[in-house]
Design goal:
Length: 664
Amino acid sequence: MADQAHIRNFSIIAHIDHGKSTLADRILELTKTVEARGMRAQLLDSMELERERGITIKAQAVRVLFDSEDGQQYQLHLIDTPGHVDFTYEVSRSLAACEGALLVVDASQGVEAQTLANTYLAIEGGLELIPCLNKIDLPGAEPERVADEIAELLGEPADGVRRISAKTGDGVIEVLEELVRKVPPPQGDPDGPPRAVIFDSEFDQYRGVIAYIRVVDGTFTKGEAIRAMATGTQAEIDDIGFFTPNETPAKSLSAGEVGYVITGVKDVTQLRVGDTLTTKVRGAEEALPGYRDVQPMVYCGLFPIESDQFPELRDALEKLTLNDAALQWEPETSDALGFGFRCGFLGLLHMDIVRERLEREYDLDLMATMPSVGFEVTMSDGTELEVHNPSDFPDPTKVKEIREPFVKASVLAPKEYVGTIMELCQEKRGEHAGMHYLSADRVQLEYLLPLAEIVLDFFDQLKSRTKGYASLDYELVGLRPGQRAAGGVRRSADPGAGHGGAAPPPPGGGGAGGGEPDEVLPHPRGARPPAAAAGRAHRGRPSGRARQFGRRDRALAEPRRDLTADGADARHRQRSPSDWPGVRWAPAIPRAKTARTCVPRRHGSLRVGRGASTTCTRREGALLLLSGGTYSSLTWFPQPRPVQPRAPTSRRRSRTFPTLRRFA
């Protein structure tokens, strides 16, 4: 057991890809916590998803022994944190277990949106910040400019910013020396009643719940009986220890230390993140503050493709909630998709990660509905409703007011993109809230935006229009009245299919997003085509077939030829587009305003260009759509039950398919 005066707890915080995990690797290597043969890149990113995507999803804690130049050995508890805005809650819980933080900034990119957000989190928590300028070995590094940005952000001289290279290890030992000097030791009573806060947890099917704890007061010993103060759960400590980064058993954990506790509890609801642990004998009377409740921003329905997997999905969600405290869910029933769950997430990346973890770790096949946000609705009779699913939206004629969630978005970008960003935010119903320059070349724009616009394509549009230079951070600011309708795609007049997302009413009503479910669900025989609904208005009923060309299109087209006739050219009898190596197909009318071309080859549909799609109706068919005279790579969507084609008549030849010409 280390002396409390020689313990330091700290986190590494930074924007995405600024080098948090690489710096953690160098600290583990230089302090010889991990042997050279056991080292690999991003050692603390233990999840397969983290290594595939190159991002940190879960915060990881590890104990490091550091021999300082003052002759003392210090016990450092390092917590590597995520950098994406969706995992800010994970960062806040990690910072609550620390007294200091290393603020890492890329010397070539400078201060970014999450740099500011994490800095404010650390300052609010009263942490001692040590700024570090990383990647100084890059050819494009601008250490002087970025150091000035950091100094202006923290209100400290630029000379106090440490220059390091996490890749080569330059300056890392000096950072640890400064950390030992500046970060205060943990405060707590080592002889008082034991208290520890659970800051994270996971589930092991053999050992039960593994709780990650930060001991605040007293000492916890193996074999001792403990009690969870919020739930009242009582259990005995089967195993206790710390991370190096693997689980290392110990006899006890004392005040100021970070480690894990295994009690054999198999019920995931009995030990929750934020709960306080104490001993059954001579236990504490007052619980620790815990953590604030997190509110989901994005909602999505998850349904098992096989209906008999519903119990397995419920069990998987319960276990995953233990490891991901921000995930919320409740049962949901859809007439089209059956039994499933309505889940709340912190963002689109969080939603994608949860779905992929459910499929990989619990061997489930899932279908996700379109993401949406929650609304508060005031009815004409004064009743207040919360709507998270477009199919649950009440009759618009009885609605008095709709309130939608708004966020305060902070966009950092080079100054030459200010006009582009302002134009995008105005298109997304944004309200300008402020602008100031971080330096002569970088500017921070603040806008109030509807959350529903953020979860659609705002981030993609922002990156596209600024050539990838802009960064985004946002926080929920509350609900505001909004002029929106719950728009949803209804298949066969069924409002409960669960495909729809909350969308603004388009001009003329409806029609927005009416083509999406065609790519997921095949048409039943004889079904009515889908219609987009905004309120009670139904607009735009695409039939799923390419439209017939008008007079102007036919005038521009070359003489037509029936490509579907028996005995046609051999190249048209290829099985699928993949059988046409080195050959592209283009319409004969590239100047037409709207050109949609179908090359029947196989059942299914192809998506091209702007995402339009349709269904091939030939016995052997492949589909090519061109919108606005443009085309791109094809995406194949096989459909097991295609609609049977109508027999061609001898009096009239099909005008749906113009002549295509082949060119290399």
